[in-house]
Write a structure and sequence with these properties.
Radius of gyration: 30 Å
Number of strands: 13
Strand order of the largest sheet: 3-2-1-9-10
Structural class: alpha/beta
Strand content: 5-15%
Bound molecules: zinc ion
Largest sheet: 5 strands, parallel
Number of helices: 21
Shape: elongated
Distance between the termini: 57 Å
């Protein structure tokens, strides 16, 4: 297949299969520290798309890691009401911070469950692993020992790969979890050796939480620690045998996290590391990066309310992976997006099609598919005419499709996102060509083809020396009191020839 006609998921899968052998392991991970963010959708949707493509080439496992040992460092907006209960836990791992709602085993677990719910809805089914579990099972212990024993060597690798001039004096691969206060972000290792380390809980965090002052000693084998992120990531990729993982563009910069990850794999583990570390762009809203804290962009809840899931998935999977993706839903963008999705649904990916079309077809094939059969334009016109979804379903012979799309169309109407020509009422307004419009209506016959209906207008206009657009305008005014509307012939068919004759005959 021609490379330029391939969807990015196919190209990456090809590259992975070329550089490594099955079983393939595609990994993806996030810190679930707050409500689901649209960027999080990308994290698992991209990995899922690649894993699906790769599964065609050999045994493939898709793992999703939740970094629940990361520190709880801020109270997300919807949880401000639990500020009193939550504040004492700032600085502790997310897995050790209670869920104020009481429905999950931890604060991090609460949001992981939300992410799992979204994965389920989007049809992604990774094996879910949590960092606290991986640590408590001892999966990291050997790495912690190696990193500690060869601390100076690792420190230099981190320094050089992250392009820093100097490293902090008290730098250490291990972040102890204080046995007294439970915090992970206020501790520092004071000495280590023989599989043990001493620590002091006396650091101040950037969000103003102080260590408790405790000094303690712990064995690595007791699993009461986590590793620095840049060292945790390669360790986890190593013991999970990760073949491919993704990272947003900021991780891929010179001196970025991924530079360190590869430095550790190659110089420290003396292994090649993942065959492919794919790069993906940011999600943007009118040129600005989506940001929950700055209130930029749509929330996941809003996206799910206004877009059928397959359309949302299509919107995220269609553009090139490395490009920043604009995800802005409004009057100018909604209809083109849904129309594009409908078009993609109509393409046969197996046939020779032009470049952009093939990519669209593949992106579409990764979604759960279009759930309505009638063309959206017909649905909109029919709904405008009857304002009744059961009627729309039966007239277009798509009862299930109409019921499925109904709540979305109502959202679009309420937000004024539907093009003006699909929003109208049946009522006549004065116009310039009463007799000609009457003639048009009386020339209509039941069962006429759309092309013939359209031709009647042109013929009358030509005969009378009236510019055709002017006569079309009159017909629309006579039917819907607006100078333009949906394509006339299709509209007349949906409305019914008898009804048109009744209105203007
Ligand atoms: Zn919960
Ligand atoms: Zn402490």
């Amino acid at each position: 297949m021609d490379k330029k006609n391939s969807h990015w998921s196919e190209l990456i899968a090809d590259e992975i299969a070329h550089k490594s052998a099955p079983p393939f392991v595609v990994a993806s991970g996030i810190t679930t520290s707050g409500p689901l963010h649209p960027g999080t959708l990308c994290e698992f949707l991209f990995a899922d798309a690649i894993a699906r493509e790769l599964a065609k080439k050999g045994k493939t496992q898709f793992v999703f890691i939740a970094d629940l040992l990361d520190a709880f460092d801020s109270i997300p907006e919807p949880f401000k009401k639990y500020e009193k209960e939550l504040t004492p836990h700032l600085g502790k791992p997310l897995a050790h911070t209670p869920d104020p709602m009481g429905c999950h085993r931890s604060f991090g677990g609460h949001f992981l469950s939300e992410a799992e719910g979204a994965m389920e809805k989007f049809g992604a089914h990774p094996e879910i692993l949590t960092a606290d579990r991986l640590y408590s099972e001892g999966r990291y212990d050997e790495y912690a020992r190696m990193y500690s024993e060869r601390k100076d060597e690792v420190k230099e690798m981190v320094r050089a790969s992250s392009m820093r001039e100097t490293m902090p004096e008290d730098w250490h691969p291990i972040m102890p979890i204080c046995e007294k206060c439970g915090r992970v972000e206020t501790t520092r290792v004071t000495d280590c050796g023989g599989g043990e380390y001493g620590y002091a809980c006396d650091k101040k965090t950037r969000y103003g939480v102080d260590g408790c002052g405790h000094r303690g000693k712990a064995k690595i084998s007791a699993h009461k620690y986590k590793l620095l992120f840049r060292l945790d990531w390669p360790a986890r990729q190593d013991f999970l045998n990760v073949t491919a993982e993704g990272g947003s563009v900021d991780h891929h910069t010179k001196g970025g996290t991924i530079a360190t990850v590869y430095a550790i794999h190659r110089q420290f583990f003396r292994k090649p590391g993942p065959a492919v570390f794919y790069k993906f762009g940011f999600l943007k809203y009118k040129g600005k990066k989506y940001s929950k804290s700055k209130g930029i962009g749509h929330s996941v809840a809003e996206l799910m309310e206004v877009l059928p899931l397959p359309v949302l998935k299509y919107a995220l999977l269609r553009p090139d992976l490395q490009e920043d993706k604009e995800l802005v839903l409004e009057e100018q963008t909604l209809f083109p997006l849904v129309s594009d999705f409908e078009y993609a649904a109509s393409i046969d990916a197996e046939k020779e099609v032009e470049r952009a079309d093939r990519k669209k077809a593949v992106a579409y094939s990764l979604t759960q598919g279009k759930k309505w059969r009638a063309p959206l334009q017909d649905i909109l016109v029919t709904y405008a005419l009857y304002k009744d979804w059961a009627e729309v379903g039966s007239r277009l012979d798509d009862t299930e499709g109409a019921a499925y799309i109904a709540p979305y169309v109502e959202q679009w109407l309420a937000r004024k996102w539907i093009p003006d020509k699909y929003v109208f009422e049946l009522k006549a307004a004065p116009h310039a060509h009463t007799e000609l419009v009457k003639e048009f209506a009386s020339s209509l016959e039941e069962g006429m083809e759309e092309q013939d209906i359209q031709n009647i207008v042109y013929e009358i206009a030509k005969r009378e020396g009236v510019p055709p657009p002017e006569l079309f305008k009159s017909v629309y005014l006579a039917l819907i009191s607006k100078p333009q509307g949906p394509k006339l012939a299709r509209f007349v068919k949906i409305l019914g020839i008898g009804r048109v004759k009744g209105m203007i005959g």
